[in-house]
């Protein structure tokens, strides 16, 4: 099970060396619950990532505002860790909150922006764009 985003941020701040952060990122990826095989679909595939990435968005409409829940997976260890960070950051937010959330700011705070390769950074942006588009679509329909 993934730790809350505040705990992830605290752990990143505690780790001084990029190698330690790199290992922690992969550990977070291993904590992602398994994504069912049927969710590894074209509809859930994130385009713009060099690695294979799947994000499934689920909408909980039981409250006054729709809340988003995410599941995800990747075939690459580092990228799977990035998926885990994004899920921890966005999961459980209302659609409006998720549409406004500053995931790029989070990545800068964690030092990921400067340490991920250009390809992985582009993939992370593609994931953020996908989540934001899903959130905006749900918010507009609410």
UniProtKB/TrEMBL annotation:
Transmembrane segments: none annotated. Residues 10-133 form the Fe-S metabolism associated domain. Pfam families: SufE. InterPro entries: Fe-S_metab-assoc_dom. Belongs to the SufE family. PANTHER family: SUFE-LIKE PROTEIN 2, CHLOROPLASTIC, SULFUR ACCEPTOR PROTEIN CSDE. This is SufE family protein. The lineage of its organism: Bacteria, Pseudomonadati, Pseudomonadota, Alphaproteobacteria, Hyphomicrobiales.
């Amino acid at each position: 099970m993934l730790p809350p985003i505040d705990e992830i941020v605290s752990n990143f701040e505690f780790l001084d060396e990029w190698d330690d952060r790199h290992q922690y990122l992969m550990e977070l990826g291993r904590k992602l619950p398994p994504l069912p095989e049927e969710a590894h679909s074209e509809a859930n595939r994130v385009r713009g990532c060099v690695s294979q990435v799947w994000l499934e968005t689920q909408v909980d409409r039981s409250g006054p505002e729709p809340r988003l829940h995410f599941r995800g997976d990747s075939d690459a260890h580092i990228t799977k860790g990035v998926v885990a960070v994004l899920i921890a950051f966005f999961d459980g937010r209302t659609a409006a909150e998720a549409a406004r959330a500053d995931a790029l700011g989070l990545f800068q705070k964690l030092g990921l922006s400067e340490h991920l390769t250009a390809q992985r950074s582009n993939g992370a942006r593609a994931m953020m764009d996908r989540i934001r588009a899903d959130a905006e679509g749900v918010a507009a329909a609410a």
